[in-house]
Specification:
Rossmann fold; globular; 23% helix; six-stranded mixed beta sheet; alpha/beta; Helicase, Ruva Protein, domain 3; 35-stranded mixed beta sheet; 1515 residues
Length: 1515
């Protein structure tokens, strides 16, 4: 039996242990040998990698195949090399066994990895076979919208939109166009989309072809053939070659059933599809992808392909300001600390945020000095753009025709970033006769809008956010200014310094000036060939010569904007007899301008918003006048004879200008008008006098005022706004004559029962109507009998109609039918308490808003609010594909539902088609909804981007279990005031769990939801080992005021409810900002689990934790050392965290472990406030014992903790006793505790060492701000503020080498200084240095006796402010030391000194040293009754002008006489003052009997009184 046990158990165990021990002893003994061997093999591996990289690049250039896995192998080797080449081969000494063992083991593991890499490399099979360049193969690289490694968030939307169209069926999107101005990044995005399509294998073949400005069709055809089959074409003619391409496409598409993405990049003109082998319509399986500067060209190609209905345009815009700056400084490699940074920001602004401009200029500025940057900025400010940039814009300019060029040049008259009014351009063009063959202003307006539309399509102009306006890109403006400055045009455009105008008077044809700050125009301001004069922003004092216009006889257009000078229009204007357009906008015309009537050729006259009070009768002489604009001229009086004589007037604009006296005159004129803008607020009964029959363009309001903001999308549309109590008043006015031309109609008629009541109009009377708003119609029962006549209606809004039940009443004559609004985009229904359905279904008892008989095929936005009786939005039959057409409502993008308390379900059970395009969902105050998405997620993939749910107290389930497929496009989630939700995301690893990425998810907010205990609830499967994807793109999370409403006892709580806010197996790669506020039930914020191999929160920058009442740990790990052994986790987890802000978290005892500090290398700011249980900032009380010494020993020698730390703030921490505390657990002896303390001390020392600002307030348990071991190295500290700390000693004063300060040896470990003094005895610190300290403030620290020791003064060279207030025990500011030198003390930068409420202060310094204060400007000494001497030596203050005291300011102009007064005692002492070296020098001696003069200039002053409450200086 014993033999069996020995042979079968003991012998194997001994052999195993022997081998195991031998291996581990080898790690220690042969550590250096293993490292050297590993280094040699690593060198060989690096050479091998370089060879593979070179071979890969060669095959890339030669279009040859690359073995699968090469890219992954190269990346893996590079990562491995970066990780292991830092292993030191110098050894750690014979006695450092643990570090030798660790290094040797790591070197052996690296050697094994190198062998594996070498073996994998040998398996690559390189060939010289060419590949068909169109074939799709798998790639490892991920495509993101970036440049030079800079991610562009503004590109996510167009990128994802284009990607969506690429993924959809051809019947929805067969032709896709990426459009934008030259250099904006269209081709770059196209290449990224191509890569993404490659990676996802969306197509079998991708055929990218560059067309270019001057294309060669033979070459293009050959490229297509090579991409398709790897061989070129041999046919000679274009038709023959095209036929051969069609055959190749047919083989791929029809016979092999392959999918092809055909990319045409840089398209400048329409391409004949037949020439490139395509048929019309395009064949199935082929998707055409275009990039162009001109979206209209792309539209023409789509029309020729019979794909105009499936044509999609994606606009690529310029970068945001932040993105542009990031790109520029990435290229130039300039940081914020660089003195070129501010200049760079200005250069980026001048580049107009255009990527190509930033690339060209940034590359030119690389490694250049400041003067070169200044020169480049000056050139850009002068609109002198680089040649390459000019060529980019010139190409686009040359491709537009003459009229378009003229309109573009007109836009160049305006300043940068100006919103250019389209109507102004029309009036300029009319006055200059730019449009040949156009005889009416309406025709000129159409031509102007056509030109602008073409220029916008060509991306030479930009759509403005301001209605009726366009804008010009800065670089295009610079190009235009270069064009118009040429000799053949010689325009003068100056919106900067106008003190000197350029020459060239004879040739100049157009002038545009901004006159701000200009005092006068010179007498020789003469431009005889001038045709256009535009002046802007002239001050009231601006002077014009009386003969200003005499030498401008060829003027055709004058346009003045915001000119206040009363002399801008003078009588000499009559010399400009060719003037056709006079446009004044917001100008002050406080004078008689009757002479304007002499301009007999004037056709356009505008006084818009000029506040003129009278239109003189002389205006009636303008017999050729066609347009008169009086908009905004309140209380205007029109003289008799004005309107009567204007026989050719066709357009009049009088919004805000119609008065009683003007009404009759307007009525006489109305028959000849074709355009009218006017408000009839009080004239409803007289409207029958106005003729509307000839109006083509109008904006007319009856009973109300016009709100122009409503028409910002199209300010030229025809508008009617009708408000009346009685419908009869409107019918009598014959306003219904305009209904057939009306595009926007607003109705508020109290007694109207349906729209037909308006004079019995027919169903087709609103055939041009685009927008209809009906509101406050108290008797409205339904809107239409039949709505099918509204073929152009795009927007329908119904508001506050209390009796309205249905939108469309079924006609009794109808048996069945479908209500169709084919162009309806927006439907808004507000405050309709009895409304139930758009079109009632008599066969269904349950009324729903939409049913199978409603067909709104293009509806994109649905807003419903306060509809108390609405129970269903979708009829159950609505989503049944066998009963309802697929496109009934297939384009819905936004749904907003507010205040519908009877609504139980938002979606039907199978809403797949509704979610196809839905991007934004908002649900507010719907008290009956329990499940937001009561659907089967398995087959549902939606386009939802934003979800907002607010004040839905019955809502229990926000999403179904495992909702990731439903949220693949989600960008933002906000949940607020939903009292029944307990969990946001339910994840069941055992229930058909599937990893789904949500690459767009950016923002999560959960607010004021009292029952939310978990954001993520994970059930089933291997909970801690399965990494969960889907949240890796989230950048911002805020969870505030959530938790259980009525908190149960711990015994009653569900044991399955997690107390961890962020489980370690959910991957948050992109999270930057995290805020948790009153998130009840959370005990641990971050769980660090050994099973998770991914780095945690690698991009988290800001952490805010407020009022987390249950939180005991921010970070918690079950084994720190094992966790940190993984290098990837070690170097990347939390490494971007820069700011920690914790407030009112009362259970937390400490912030982090010293081992956690290894992960926080970029920390910049720590702020902790009102955490009353916090005892330490750094503590190892919860760390595991194993290998602590090894980990921290290696850390302390190789890691610099917190090198970027800027600020430490601790406020109201009543139990804080130290920044770094003692050893955890029971003490086992001084040496053990000393090591434990050292772990914490290293980290707390680093916290203090690198901080630039330290603020400590109301920390009454803290005895020392900074441990003595840290003081000597604190060369970055600039600001130190300490307030209301009762027990505080600001600096640790114990002797550095173990002496207690009195010369006696100290060998015991003081409990209060463990972690401070122990380290200080080990450190080699001889002098306390605060060499960068600039501001020091100490308030209400009653245990402080002094602030500095004398030896510290040498380091205070940068001190600028010193403030000490309300410290009851303070005796001196600087404490004497035994044996200090008698040398002079200098505070070279001190400017402000304040000593206040220091009842025991005897002086600043009581030694005999002299002090020099060369920059001291202000001194406050208040309530210091015991202060007999400031310094016993002399003090020199050359710039001090006075001393502030409690009763005022004391001047030192005539020297310094000090009177110290008291009500209790009378003490005499001597103050001596000298003004040597330019300023007062002063000393003080207690006993007047010792008076003497040591300098002839010294004044001896006897002071008789000392005030023991305060002292001050009096002259």
């Amino acid at each position: 039996m014993e033999q069996t046990i020995y042979s079968q158990i003991v012998v194997p165990v001994v052999k195993f242990l022997k081998g195991h021990l031998t291996k581990h002893l080898g790690y220690v003994i042969f550590s250096s040998k293993y490292v050297r061997a590993m280094k040699e093999q690593l060198r060989v591996l690096k050479n091998t990698r370089d060879n593979v990289e070179k071979q890969k690049q060669t095959n890339d250039m030669d279009n040859k195949e690359i073995p699968v896995g090469v890219s992954a192998w190269l990346n893996a080797v590079e990562t491995f090399k970066n990780e292991f080449e830092s292993i030191s081969s110098e050894g750690y000494g014979c006695l450092n066994i643990k570090m030798r063992h660790k290094t040797g083991k790591k070197a052996c593991e690296a050697t094994e990895m190198i062998k594996r890499f070498t073996k994998e490399k040998k398996e690559f099979e390189w060939t010289n076979a060419p590949i068909p360049t169109g074939i799709v193969y798998s790639k490892t690289e991920n495509s993101t919208p970036s440049s030079h490694g800079v991610n562009f968030k503004s590109r996510y939307r167009p990128f994802n939109e284009a990607l969506k169209w690429l993924q959809q069926d051809n019947n929805k999107s067969q032709v896709i166009a990426l459009c934008g101005m030259g250099g904006v990044g269209k081709t770059t995005m196209m290449e990224q989309l191509e890569t993404e399509a490659n990676n996802k294998k969306m197509f079998d073949y991708i055929v990218p072809i560059v067309i270019g400005r001057t294309h060669n069709m033979h070459s293009i055809q050959n490229d297509i053939s090579i991409r398709l089959s790897g061989e070129g074409l041999v046919e000679a003619t274009i038709p023959e070659r095209a036929h051969r391409l069609r055959e190749k496409f047919k083989i791929r598409l029809e016979e092999k059933k392959e999918r092809i993405l055909f990319i045409l990049d840089d398209v400048w003109q329409k391409i004949e599809l037949k020439d490139i082998g395509l048929t019309s319509p395009l064949p199935n399986g082929l998707k055409l992808f275009l990039t162009s500067r001109d979206s209209d060209i792309c539209r023409q190609i789509a029309v020729s392909a019979h794909s105009h209905t499936s044509f999609k345009v994606v606009e690529v815009e310029i970068l945001t300001e932040e993105e542009a700056q990031n790109l520029f400084f990435k290229i130039t490699n300039v940081s914020k600390e660089d003195n070129r940074y501010d200049i760079g920001c200005q250069i980026v602004e001048k580049c107009g945020r255009l990527p190509i401009a930033i690339n060209i200029i940034g590359t030119a500025l690389q490694s250049q000095e400041m003067h070169f940057w200044n020169s480049k900025l000056q050139r850009l400010n002068n609109n002198n753009i680089d040649h390459d940039l000019q060529e980019v814009i010139k190409i686009s300019y040359e491709y537009i025709d003459k009229e378009h060029k003229e309109v573009l040049l007109l836009c160049g008259l305006f300043p940068e970033d100006y919103d250019i009014r389209i109507e102004d351009l029309t009036r300029y063009a009319w006055g200059l006769n730019l449009f040949k063959g156009v005889s009416t202003l309406g025709g000129a307006r159409d031509s102007t809008r056509t030109c602008l539309g073409t220029l916008i399509y060509a991306h030479m102009l930009i759509k403005s956010n301001k209605h009726g306006c366009v804008r010009m890109h800065d670089l295009v403006l610079s190009f235009v200014l270069g064009v118009v400055s040429k000799s053949d045009r010689a325009w003068i455009i100056n919106h900067g310094n106008v003190t000197q105008l350029a020459g060239g008077e004879e040739a100049c044809k157009r002038i545009s000036l901004t006159c701000k700050g200009m005092s006068e125009f010179a007498q020789d301001f003469k431009y005889p060939n001038l045709s256009l004069l535009q002046l802007m922003n002239g001050d009231l004092s601006l002077k014009f010569p009386e003969d200003f216009y005499e030498n401008m006889k060829k003027l055709q257009v004058i346009a003045y904007y915001d000119m206040e000078s009363p002399l801008m229009i003078s009588k000499s204007l009559h010399c400009s007899t060719n003037l056709k357009s006079l446009c004044l906008y917001r100008c002050k015309l406080m004078f008689d301008f009757s002479f304007v009537g002499d301009l007999v050729n004037l056709e356009v006259l505008s006084f818009a918003y000029c506040d003129i009070l009278k239109l003189p009768c002389a205006i009636g002489k303008l017999v050729k006048l066609k347009l008169l604009d009086l908009t905004g001229c309140l209380n205007l009086h029109v003289d008799n004879g004005v309107f009567e004589n204007l026989k050719n007037l066709k357009e009049i604009y009088m919004i805000k200008a119609l008065t009683d006296s003007n009404f009759e005159k307007l009525a006489m004129l109305s028959k000849q008008l074709c355009a009218l803008e006017v408000e009839f607020v009080d004239k409803k009964n007289q409207l029958n006098k106005i003729s509307f029959e000839n109006l083509d363009n109008f904006k007319i309001a009856i009973g109300c005022s016009i709100n122009s903001y409503k028409f910002k999308n199209d300010p030229f549309e025809n508008v009617l706004e009708l408000v009346s109590d009685r419908i009869i008043d409107l019918c009598d006015s014959k306003i219904n004559q305009l209904f057939k031309k009306t595009e926007h109609l607003e109705l508020s008629v109290k007694d109207m029962t349906c729209l037909k009541d308006l004079h019995q109009i027919g169903q087709h009377s609103f055939s041009t109507l685009k927008s209809l708003m009906v509101y406050d119609c108290s008797n409205l029962k339904y809107l239409f009998r039949v709505a099918n006549g509204l073929k152009k209606l795009e927007r329908l809004t119904v508001r506050k109609c209390n009796v309205l039940e249905v939108l469309i009443q079924k006609d009794e004559s109808e048996i069945s039918g479908v209500v169709e609004l084919p162009q309806l985009l927006v439907l808004e229904l507000y405050d309709l308490p009895n409304f139930t359905s758009i079109y009632p279904d008599n066969n269904n008892n349950m009324c729903a808003l939409f049913n199978s008989q409603v067909k709104f095929a293009k509806l994109e936005i649905l807003n419903i609010e306060n509809m108390g009786k609405l129970k269903q939005i979708w009829d159950c039959e609505f989503v049944s594909s066998d009963k309802v057409e697929v496109n009934n409502i297939s384009m819905l993008r936004e749904i907003e539902v507010v205040g519908c308390d009877s609504l139980e379900n938002l979606f039907p059970t199978n809403p797949m088609r509704l979610l196809t395009h839905l991007e934004k969902l908002k649900v507010i105050s719907c008290g009956s909804i329990k499940d937001l998405f009561n659907i089967n997620v398995e087959y549902n993939v939606s386009m939802l981007r934003e979800i907002e749910v607010t004040d839905c107290d019955s809502l229990v389930n926000l999403f179904p279990t495992n909702p990731m497929r439903l949220l693949t496009r989600l960008e933002k989630l906000q949940v607020e005031c939903c009292g029944s939700i307990e969990v946001i995301f339910k994840i069941d690893l055992g229930y058909e769990f599937e990893q789904v990425s949500m690459n767009n998810f950016r923002r999560i907010q959960v607010l004021d939801s009292k029952n939310v205990r978990e954001v993520w609830r994970i059930r089933g499967g291997e909970k801690n080992s399965t990494s969960i994807r889907g949240f890796e793109s989230v950048e911002f999370i805020s969870i505030e005021r959530c938790g259980r409403d009525n908190k149960k006892s711990r015994e009653d709580e569900d044991v399955n409810i997690s107390t961890v806010a962020f489980p370690s197996n959910i991957y948050f790669h992109s999270l930057r900002d995290l805020k948790l506020n009153k998130f009840e039930g959370v005990e641990v914020v971050f769980e660090l689990d050994l099973n998770n191999q991914q780095p945690l929160f690698p991009n988290l920058q800001s952490l805010d934790l407020h009022e987390m009442n249950d939180m005991s740990h921010v970070w918690k790990c079950n084994n720190w050392n094992k966790y940190l052994l993984n290098p990837q986790r070690h170097y990347h987890s939390f490494h971007s965290l820069t700011s920690i802000n914790i407030r009112e978290c009362n259970r937390i005892k400490y912030l982090f472990s010293p081992l956690m500090a290894k992960l926080l290398s970029n920390l910049q700011k720590i702020k902790i406030r009102s955490c009353h249980d916090m005892e330490e900032v750094v503590s190892n009380r919860d760390d595991d014992d194993d290998n602590d010494e090894e980990e921290m020993s290696s850390t302390s020698t190789t890691t610099t903790f917190f090198p970027h730390l800027q600020s430490l703030t601790f406020e109201d921490l009543t139990n804080l006793t130290r920044i770094g505390g003692g050893a955890k657990g029971a003490k086992t002896g001084v040496i053990h505790d000393q090591f434990k303390a050292s772990h914490v001390g290293v980290v707390s020392w680093s916290l203090c060492q690198y901080s630039k600002e330290i603020v400590i307030s109301f920390c009454n348990g803290l005895s020392s701000v900074i441990p003595s071991n840290a003081i000597g190295q604190m060369q970055k500290l600039e600001v130190l503020r300490v307030r209301h700390c009762k027990l505080l000693k600001v600096f640790e004063t114990k002797d550095i080498h173990g002496n207690s300060g009195d010369g006696k040896s100290s060998t015991n470990i003081d409990e209060e200084s463990v972690g401070i003094d122990v380290i200080s005895r080990q450190a080699n610190i001889n002098v306390t240095r605060l060499s960068n300290l600039k501001i020091m403030e100490i308030r209400s620290c009653n245990s402080l006796v002094f602030v500095f020791t004398f030896s510290m003064l040498e380091s205070l060279k940068q001190l600028e402010e010193l403030i000490v207030i309300d410290c009851k025990s303070m005796k001196v500011i600087v404490e004497k030391e035994n044996g200090e030198d008698r040398k002079d003390v200098v505070f070279p930068w001190l400017k402000f000194l304040s000593l206040e409420s220091l009842p025991n202060l005897e002086g600043f310094f009581l030694g005999m040293n002299n002090f020099n204060w060369p920059l001291l400007e202000k001194v406050k000494i208040i309530k210091c009754p015991q202060m007999m001497n400031f310094t016993c030596g002399e003090s020199t203050t050359p710039v001090l002008e006075g001393i502030h005291r409690s009763l005022g300011r004391y001047s030192l102009e005539c020297g310094l006489n000090i009177h110290m007064k008291t009500h209790q005692t009378s003490t005499r002492f001597l103050i001596t003052v000298s003004s040597a070296r330019g300023g007062p020098r002063w000393t003080g001696v207690r006993d007047a009997g010792s008076r003497h003069c040591c300098h002839p200039m010294r004044t001896v002053v006897e002071v008789e009184h000392v005030d023991r409450r305060w002292w001050w200086f009096e002259g």
